Amino acid sequence: MPLPETMFCAQQIKIPPELPDILKQFTKAAIRTQPHDVLQWAAAYFSALSKGEPLPVKERMEMPLATEKTDAGLTPGLLKILHKQLSPKGMVNVAELKEKWKDLCLPEEQLKAILQLDDFGEEVEWMKVLALGCSVLGGSLLSSMKHACEILTRDPEGGAARVPFETFSFLYSYLAGIDGEIPEEETEAFLHRIKEQADQQTGMVLLRNFLTQPSTPF
Description:
The chain is mainly α.
């Protein structure tokens, strides 16, 4: 026998004062991030919110990128979310990386393909994963570096996308090594030219310092 419905008057219903703002921020975040699985993403969102962790939220709306190498999935905005969540750790357990990846509703096979590009163990150096993620987004070494600079910079969107030369050098050298077809002397000569410019810019590399260079395809 079904239980009788309980009737409440307006005076008996108490709405927590913080609830409207929480729901408003959640809704705005969902619209901005456009997750493929809203329920899965919502679970990750409220879990991070309750723990005071970086939220799985894009800074702005964007269209997914589709490349010849992968299905539409990873985007600069999603990679930037992962960077905010995982970069403070430096070294990241692969299981945690897979969990954060899944929280963003990204295809597992795409992460598997990225991790197969290097000889990783149970822990990975986050900056290397970031570099490989940028290589998925970019069709050449320099376009990959452009994505990396735009993700790592503290400059406002559309600005110079400055990053420290040491960071740029590490990522470029790593991706050139992964490529395997770029002579070491060529990498060293390129970085030497970039450093000369960075030394005149308080040690920072700007997009215009290398986007005028010939692109090396992956």
